[in-house]
Amino acid sequence: MKVLVYPADKYGCGHFRMIWPGEELRKQGYDVDVIYGKDRHVRVHLEGEKVVDAEIEADVVVFQRLTHKYMSQVVSVLRSKGIAVVVDIDDDLNAIDPNNPAWNMVHPKEEGWPHSWKHLNEACRTATLVTVSTPALLDVYAKHGRGHVLYNYLPDQYDGIPHTDSDVIGWPASYHSHPNDPIVVGGAIARLVSEGYSFKMAGDASGAGKAFGLVSDPEGQPCSVEEWPYAVAQFGIGIAPLADTKFNRSKSWLKPLEMSAAGVPWVASPRAEYERLHALGAGLTAERGRVWYRTLKSLAESSQRRSELSEAGREVARGLRLADHAWRWLEAWERAWKIEQNKA
Fold it and tell me: Which residues of the chain form beta strands (DSSP E)?
């Protein structure tokens, strides 16, 4: 079975969902190639605005986040040739917040712009199989029953990340991607900062100060995919706030999982996948602002409790290594191949 994997980007999403699983399986001896943008092998033939043919040599083709109007049409064309097409998606783009800059990138436009969440919906409807990062996304993109959950796991880069204990509170996120999430902590962060505790971010902090009720933006640290685990590990205590929205109810456990691997004890909103990770023994959850304050304050005051949660989180993360779970991607792709072979 020859598999071609097409990541949508080289950022976190592209790596966790496509690049790292594909590379791991290739390392294990499977016929899997990760194809980057400049090396695209798909030759698309158009008649006006309609894709009439697409040329590619593979048994299974895995696309990520197909929002382009032409590439969404490629799905059914390839399937007509007996090629299994898998579409991977890890966010509910239909429910993305208008305050998130990505909203403007995928909002359906009448003229000119080729990307749309409507194209993604169509690609998922016609795909052989849709792979998603959470069970909630099955109800969005795989109501036809051809869906497969692939939780996010951690590559070898997250093994053995050094961590120094402290009472520094941190949020590993960029504010522009989470514009309405700080509100769930209420005044907890502002109150803790007023008491002398430090609050930092790993990511773009522009605008975060006002959102958390601070007099200025906290220290931020935008960084590359390779630098990210070390940026996360700089915190003594991590937070993962998520507002209770349709978009967030489909979010994966990745952010607190990264903190767990880096030895950072964390407090998170009780969204479904964060609760799932917490149930395995990692981190703590908090809903209302006063609970956020009380929980973070107790961690800031107790190095022993931080140490206990740090080790518990690392232990959970050890069981969620990509090297031990890459077979799940292969299983999904083999399922797609069998669906395609048996569709007649």
Answer: 3-6, 32-34, 43-47, 50-55, 60-64, 84-89, 129-132, 147-149, 169-171, 199-201, 237-240, 266-268, 284-285
